[in-house]
Design goal:
The protein has helices spanning 3-14, 22-30, 41-53, 74-89, 105-108, 118-123, 168-181, 196-204, 216-231, 254-267, 293-309, and strands spanning 61-66, 93-98, 144-145, 152-154, 184-189, 207-213, 241-246, 271-274. By secondary structure, the protein is an alpha/beta fold. Strands 3-4-2-5-1-6-7-8 form an 8-stranded mixed beta sheet, with helices on both faces. The protein is globular and about 60 Å long. The termini are far apart. Bound molecules: adenosine-5'-triphosphate and magnesium ion.
Amino acid sequence: MTATDFLDRRDAEADLGPATWGWRGRARRWSGGLIKPKMGARETAYHEDRQLIQKDFDGPRTIAFINPKGGAAKTTSVLAAGYTFGTVRGGGVVAWDNNETRGTLGIRGARSAHRNTTRELLEDLGRFKDVYQSRIGDLGAFVRSQGDAHFDVLASDERPDVTGVIHAKDFVEVHQLLERFYRVILVDTGNNMRAENWLAAAEAADLLVVTSTVREDTGYSGLWMLDALQDAGYANLKYKTVTVLSDPSDKVDTRLAQDLTQVYEQRTRGVYRVPYDPVLVAGSVVPYHQLSAETRRSWLRACAGMAAAL
Ligand SMILES: Nc1ncnc2c1ncn2[C@@H]1O[C@H](COP(=O)(O)OP(=O)(O)OP(=O)(O)O)[C@@H](O)[C@H]1O
Ligand SMILES: [Mg+2]
């Protein structure tokens, strides 16, 4: 490896941002900005992705993350997308765990002083009925701020004794409320496609994100789900769907990855690969600031693809 390669890689790994990338970045930095070389391809692409994510929508937008197989990286993807949309847009983003049973978004997001969830919000919806009196600050009693990641998490029911289900009507009411206070709503979903709240999320979404790992069972389960949605008459399914394909370990079956990419490219608008990241394995609170530079860059690309589709 040459010294320049080494410096380039070190800068990229440290994620110091495009101002410091490659020889152009170093010339800019060392000359105190006096030398301004033209942006390289990598830097241009980085800025274009950020601009796409920052674009103004003409109303709130909802993205549902779906795959009926457990362990398909839905929850991880919602948090990574929350972090990316949140930091790049500077807020206005909520990640909502719409699991029919206890989901893990609340466990994997940063904690709060309160333990309220969608269930408590549903019980207290009355206080938001008056659109002139209710304030976004009042939602602070139910959502959990993700700090520097600049988005909020609305967790799913965490009470062990509750047997109640979330009905389609409940989904619609909470969704309408979130639409009043957020610009981007990311919906995590469960594994039962027949659940009323799953179907309501698919119906309400402006964009569906099929998440899958590079594994046959998870990949096929996503395709089976797309067939089922197609058969159920979902209009423009390909047009309103993108795929995020995660590496399940640091060694990936490249043949399977290629096959899955090819088949999902035919079924959805685009396929975005995201790497395996060891800091995500533990399944505990996502340490946003420890995500690798490659993970962050890949999610920037994936979220730009989502924004472009909205
Ligand atoms: N890119 C990645 N690198 C490393 N580990 C990952 C990655 N993506 C997901 N994981 C890990 O895989 C496990 C399953 O992921 P996740 O919980 O997001 O799946 P899920 O589809 O939400 O599952 P469920 O349907 O059971 O809720 C988690 O422990 C997560 O930390
Ligand atoms: Mg999950």
